[in-house]
Amino acid sequence: MTSQSSAGDSEPGSSSENMRQHRPAALRFVLVMSALALAIVGQALLVSGNVLWAITPYVVAVIAITTAVSNPTVASRDTTGSPGNDTTPDISSNIRAHPAHAFRRPERLWAIGLLLLALALMAASLYLFPKGPPNALAWWFFGISVPLATASALAFDGRLFSLIGKFRAGTEFTLAFSSLLPWLGLSAVLLLAAVVRLYNLDGLPAGLWFDEADNINRAVIIRANPGATTVFTPSTNLPSLFLMPIALVVDLAGVSITTARLVSAAFGLGGV
After folding, report:
1. Residue 258 to residue 198: CA distance in whole angstroms
2. 239: which strand partners?
3. pLDDT surpasses 90 at 144
């Protein structure tokens, strides 16, 4: 009788514990789905010309996805023992054992600061682009906001300051062959993709030549006057972010049939 009652008492406790364990995953899923939905709404507003209305969904989407990918350290307790067996870790000893934890509070402050600065620059670029050329300042704001947002995501995730903490603690970094195997496999796949993509690069079907010529022509215009570059190029039906690398290749290697195809091959390798 006693064993049955204890089993009955432990079953609700275990179910509630399982629910608590699944809550973070469910919350992360909701945040990611909400961010995607808001990004779609913002893109629809941007395409329809409502640039200022698109800022708010984009900002909230960035905050949601940043919150979803962040990985804060949560103190754990031993739920299998009695209430008196509290095994909450000692914070000071944890910091001594893992010096990167000492950067937890500055890490959060830096991450929030970088995120706010990136959002401000993105909002400023979205405000300046519809005003028309010259767009140099808007492109600078956008270009700076992207690495700032990336650094903010790494700081929220804890990896950036964890690496800094390891360097400050004098941790010795070693590479084991087993850890290099996945990278060697990825390198082999990328090498095979590069060979397939670059083979006979100047002999692709002639049906692509008109579009490629238009892309190169627009890239030459961008190279001649970067400040007048628009966000979208109607003649090529492409965003200018794709044409900018072509302009760089034109500047380095000149105009040829393979100029635009090298950029396409690079994007293909990035997709792999």
Report:
1. 10
2. 232
3. yes
